[in-house]
Specification:
The complex is a heterodimer of chains A (259) and B (527). Chain A is α/β, with parallel strands linked by helices and 259 residues long. Chain A is 28% helix and 24% strand. In chain A, helix 3 crosses helix 4. Chain A is globular, with a radius of gyration of 22 Å. Chain B is 34% helix and 20% strand. The chains are: A alpha/beta (259), B alpha+beta (527).
């Protein structure tokens, strides 16, 4: 089975530091990691490969430095990586990104299963998976919490919906987006890390993918991020002193005030 | 003095009669001062009434140092502001804080560079602005219990996993302000006042000279948090670090920060037998210099963790360990360049393969997400053992974990581990061992099933303390002596040297009011 796992490079932390003078975000770029949701997709791909044999290819669109996360994917068990990197891909929204990723998958060719994380922690859209499947004209199943059976031709999985759980059986090729409950991603071994240094990571650009320029990057993006800012949150701590009775009265009044 | 700040111990305050050692004490009153001036007022009041004072921070100590015997509890958890920042000519940054500041919160503030500077001096604010533009820094002492207060850490000279590379809390304390038992204050600053041989003169802030002779003992040649720090021509500040609150009340602390290494990677190495793991440690120690911490877990610790994982949803996300693995060594690589880190990984791999381990049996964490998983695993071990003991305690209140905190010099690691194992098997006790193997400092935890086990465990503890002393080690390497280990401090130094310690205390605290019961029993002098 040929499995492609889509991975995105995201900052390793959600903590945002601001320069006290300029009030701009300090980006030291020191640590970038595979989007946590994608690590579950990767683990599931590797588990399937271990079960029924096949090949796992990690695919990402990003800056040249994103090659690092593809090597990280190889260090835990992916066979190789493909990075789609070109200045003209910059500024892509989900539609343009999904189109670009679809070109990568067509280039890999004869893919049976595409696995994506539920969403990226920096964008939170959860749109890439379904849009990519539509681009490739294959079925997709979102929010998969368990793969029950898998063969080269067919896959049965459990998905979580707003109203409950659903068991879905479908023919391959298919795209799945997976939830955190699905598995426990492994950590690489020293051997895995060392081997990943020599692993094959191919870089493709707009030209080699024969991309339609009006579908990629900013020009292919009907939506744009105009401004990012940290939402204002009011956190206040009140110290309550006194004996138990006074304290409980004060707590009661604080709760009433909030409600 | 405002009498509202001293409260009678009623049921609202009973939790302040105990600490993490699970020891329960007694006291008549408690206060939560918010300023240094309030501390002075309270201390003067107690001095005039001759009421003993037990000092508390977050009560996370494991040696009952914060558990009162009688008198007044001076809880410093609300004396917790961060007061300012300075930089020296060599571009080292220093932060001044009050003793009640919590370690985890302090670390977070440094990481996010987010301090409330509204009450800081103009000079401090200027330094802070530069600090924000600098490379990332950190406060290196890292005890497992991150809810500890900085004051508590100074009082027991706390360490942690990373002390293997960076040393204990002591190394990062630059200045202390203390309130003495009579309310006078003392400021000690590193590099400003040294003993001449073993004679030391301190000058209080009021200008009074206090002179005394330091004890004559030699400190062990291993990681140590047992009794007063003394050596020839020592810096005066070192006497007050690790003094378990017996000499003065710390009201202000200046700590030094370090530049955070560019690369921090964690590696858990699994072994099918313990002897291979110990051989591996010795080789790593000889050959690798970028290792910041070297931790060990034995098969019993892994088994208890596995059992708790099956029952406790909080541990559900812990990675599974292959059942045939009997020991884990956790290493942390701190370095400036990725290629150096990679070459360390290659060396670890070689050493592991030549120590009857397999380099494929490892977990590598190369970023915060992975590191947090490995650290969660490391912290879950003591937690799961505590949970097991808490369950047993419900059935039998006398039962408590008997955890050792002893260290030995490098050449005796294997010998001491063999002794622990042999004695535990011989006495048919249940145990779990983990800890800072790089510093030859393991926490052997005897887990009594009944009173008999507990009594046997206590005897073993004393036997081990004697042996560790013979080997030139320390009876407490990081938790401090507090009340629970005072008898082992006596084993380590002998009553004559304990008397010398009492002499220092009597000079600084003539009415013997501060932290009675910590380090030694003042009533039990040899004469």
């Amino acid at each position: 089975m040929k499995i492609v796992v889509c991975v995105k490079q995201v900052p390793s932390t959600n903590e945002v530091r601001l320069d006290p003078e300029t009030n701009t975000i300090i980006r030291d770029g020191k640590q970038s990691v595979i989007n946590p949701f994608d690590t579950y997709a990767l683990e599931e791909g590797i588990k399937i490969k271990e079960k029924i044999q096949g090949e796992v290819i990690a695919l990402s669109m990003g800056i040249p430095a994103a090659e690092k996360i593809l090597r990280d994917a190889v260090s835990v068990g992916a066979d190789r990586g493909m990075l789609l990197s070109d200045r003209s891909f910059a500024g892509a929204d989900t539609l343009a990104t999904a189109y670009t990723l679809s070109l990568g998958i067509r280039k890999i060719s004869e893919v049976d299963l595409i696995l994506c994380g539920k969403m990226a922690v920096d964008g939170d859209t959860a749109q890439i998976g379904p849009e990519l499947a539509e681009n490739l004209k294959i079925p997709h199943i979102t929010n998969v919490s368990e793969i029950i059976e898998v063969s080269d031709n067919e896959i049965t999985c459990r998905t979580i919906t707003e109203t409950g759980k659903r068991l879905v059986k479908t023919k391959t090729p298919v795209l799945l987006t997976v939830l955190k409950d699905i598995n426990m991603p492994r950590l690489p071994s020293i051997d895995g890390v060392i081997n990943s240094l020599d692993a094959s990571v191919i870089v493709e650009n707009a030209e080699s993918l024969r991309a339609n320029k009006s579908y990629i990057g900013l020009s292919g993006s009907p939506t744009q991020v105009v401004k990012t800012y940290i939402p204002e949150r009011k956190n206040e701590s009140i110290e309550i002193e006194g004996d138990s009775e006074t304290k409980s009265e004060k707590i009661n009044s604080v709760i009433k005030e909030v409600i | 003095m405002n009498n509202n700040i001293i409260h009678c111990i009623k049921e609202d305050y009973v939790e302040y009669l105990r600490d993490e050692s699970r020891t329960i004490g007694k006291a008549e009153s408690i206060s939560f001062p918010k300023t240094g001036e309030e501390v002075i007022d309270i201390v003067k009041d107690m001095y005039s009434k001759e009421v003993p004072i037990t000092i508390q921070g977050a009560r996370t100590g494991l040696a009952a140092g914060a558990v009162p015997r009688k008198g007044h509890v001076l809880n410093l958890s609300k004396l917790n502001n961060i007061l300012g920042m300075r930089v020296d000519e060599e571009d080292n940054y220093y932060v001044t804080l009050q003793p009640g500041a919590i370690l985890s919160q302090f670390k977070e503030k440094i990481k996010l560079r987010k301090f409330d500077t509204s009450n800081w001096s103009f000079e401090s604010k200027k330094v802070f602005n530069n600090f924000c533009k600098k490379e990332e820094m950190f406060f290196s002492p890292d005890p497992t219990e991150t809810s500890a207060t900085i004051g508590g850490m100074v009082s027991c000279n706390a360490s942690g996993a990373r002390s293997y590379m960076y040393g204990p809390t002591r190394k990062y304390i630059e200045k202390l302000k203390l309130v003495l038992s009579d309310g006078d204050t003392l400021t000690v600053e590193r590099g400003k006042n040294f003993a001449v041989g073993r004679s030391l003169v301190l000058k209080t802030d009021k200008g009074m000279n206090i002179e005394f002779v330091l004890p004559k003992y030699l400190m062990p040649n291993s990681k140590n948090a047992s009794g007063y720090y003394v050596e020839d021509n020592m810096d005066a500040i070192d006497l007050f670090i690790g003094a378990d609150g017996t000499l003065g009340i710390i009201t202000e602390i200046e700590v030094r920060l370090l530049k955070l290494p560019e690369i921090i990677w964690g590696v858990s190495c699994f072994f099918e037998n313990e002897a291979s793991a110990i051989g591996f440690v010795e080789e790593i120690r000889r050959n690798l210099k970028d290792i910041a911490s070297m931790e060990f877990f034995d098969k019993n610790a892994l088994y208890i963790l596995k059992k708790q994982k099956e029952r406790n949803p909080g541990f559900e996300r812990l990675p599974d360990v292959d059942e045939k693995m009997k020991s884990v060594i956790y290493l942390e690589i701190h370095t400036e360049e990725e290629k150096v880190a990679l070459s360390n990984l290659e060396k670890i791999s070689k050493i592991m393969n030549s120590s009857k381990g397999k380099s494929k049996d490892t977990w590598v964490a190369k970023n915060d997400v992975g590191l947090n998983r490995l650290i969660f695993f490391r912290h879950a071990v003591p937690e799961s053992v505590n949970m097991l003991i808490d369950e047993r305690k419900k059935e039998n209140s006398k039962i408590t974990k008997l955890g050792t905190d002893m260290s030995v010099p490098d050449e005796h690691l294997e010998e001491v581990i063999k002794m622990y194992k042999k004695d535990i098997i011989k006495e048919n006790l249940e145990s779990a061992t983990w800890g800072h193997i790089g510093d030859n400092h393991l926490h052997v935890n005897i887990l009594p099933r009944d009173n008999k086990d507990y009594d046997i465990g206590l005897k073993l503890y004393e036997k081990w303390a004697k042996k560790v002393t013979e080997l030139g080690g320390a009876v407490s390497a990081e938790h401090g002596v507090g009340k629970l280990k005072s008898k082992y401090l006596k084993v380590m130094y002998g009553q004559n040297h304990i008397d010398e310690m009492i002499d220092i205390k009597s000079t600084l605290d003539p009415k013997l009011l501060l932290s009675p019961g910590n380090l030694f029993e003042v009533g039990k002098r040899s004469e």
